[in-house]
Amino acid sequence: MNLYRNLTIKQKQIVWAWTFLAVPVVFYSVIRFYPTATAILISFQDWNLLGARAWAGFDNYMKLWNDPVFWKVFRNTFAYLLIGTPVSLVLSFVIAYHLDKVRFLHGFMRMMYFLPFMTSAVAMAWVWRWFYQAVPIGLFNNILASFGIAQIEFLNSTTNALPAVLAPAVWAGLGFQVIIFMAGIRAIPTSYYEAARIDGVGWWVVLTQITLPLLRPTIVFIVVFSSIGFLRIFDHVFNMTTNNPGGPLNATKPLVLMIYDTAFNSFNMGYAAAQTVVLFTILMIVSLIQLRLLRSN
Amino acid sequence: MSTTDIIRPTATGLMAKQSKPATRNMGQILRWLALFGGGVLMVMPIAYMISTSLKWPHEVYNVNLIPVEPTLDNYLYVLEDGRFYMWFINSGIIAIVTTISNLLFDSLVGYTLCKFKFPGRTIVFIAILSTLMIPTEMLVIPWYLMSQSFGWLDSYWGIMFPGLMTGFGTFLMKQFFETVPDDFIEAARIDGLNELQIWWTVAMPLVKPALAALAIFVFLGNWTAFLWPLIVTNSTEMYTIPVGLSGFGDEADVAWELIMTGAAISTIPTLIVFLIFQRFIIRGVVMAGLKG
Question: Which residues form the ABC transmembrane type-1 domain (chain B) (predicted)?
């Protein structure tokens, strides 16, 4: 205690700071950084959990490159991203743009759009899975049937299954994006709109020349956030296709599901680790490209 | 000349005002109706989940939203089974403990990085920020191996340990502590409070809205977490609600009214919390989204 008393104020601050940080620093080192390094290390090893770990060089990566399932999964993962992100961006902007102008029951309307965000992906995947069943079980096909429209194969079709799995993911994230967009729209100073009104400019010009350019940071945030979400899609796919995860014929399998299968069903840890490194790289590249686009103007 | 020049724009303005209100009102009404229709569609899956959980098996395949003879039979069946009760408690304990841990540690670290000057500050900040770039999926294999060698598999600790602190929460709290004036902290120091007391009694009360936002995100995230709990648990007693529900769905196979009941049990608590604290939660989400 005497030792502490003799310290200067600056030195005392240093002692306090490192006391506060001691546990967190250990946590981040052991639970975040060490595992990251381990994952990269294992990706260069051949290891099936029970046997010995053997150095394998780039074998896992070569195997991945030559694996047709990986390329199928790669295409699926980007299909989730390239369909999901624009669709949810446009939908959420259109909803937010109009919702912002609505006064009557505004709070109630906002609540309806936000509610799905509070649900659990697993629960909702099962609800949508039920919707997609054939007559006489599934809601969608029952509604189609009552109008005399031909049945649609959703989860059993290799072409329809991926969009069908994506729909609840878009649905669940929409409310969050609407709320963020509305906050962005509210943050635009009204003086811009007043100036536009005095100049007598039409709504389309106001939208494209004022609102959208000023929303750029919001748009970039939403694009980055939802892209990362779609690239990491798992809960919806796994639960909507539990009888044949990622099926039919790997038509819905995303990278995270392939990682899960390889690591925890086939116990091929080295191969799975290589896949996680690929996922990490993809996420990094996609985020960096998008952040660069933000900075460019 | 000058009078007509002044009058002319006013006149056109008046004409415009006379012709526009009718169409503008129609436009407003159409916009409202379209948005309302969209909102109803958004709520539909949740409504059908709850409605089906209240239906008798023979009525499940009817598309009517309001059950003809509502029943709580499915809830009784599912709860008597006992497992959902267990999973509910597990998820609750895990979400609550993780939330408390994040509130304490993320704010302590955020505060330290914001208000203290010490060697290594920038490095620690960049290191923690960089963890935001590491996806959970990359860490699950090493976490699993770690849990295996320390005997953490299939335990509360095993499910919880990866999420006890987050870079996101730390960053969020740091952003909010920036708004606390340094003078307050200096004044407390002169009053003779030690640094721990200053953090807890002076700084923390000033960032309550941020703490609430963080609590919502961490709780919701852990209540609905699926991948890691699926990997780390292997006995029914240790499942969380999402993991249990996933297995239950497969097992119940075509008993959709039971699956919907399970789904409703896992969703209703968060929906109730949301309906009570709606305004507050939406504000929190915006704050966390824009600052974090």
Answer: 88-277
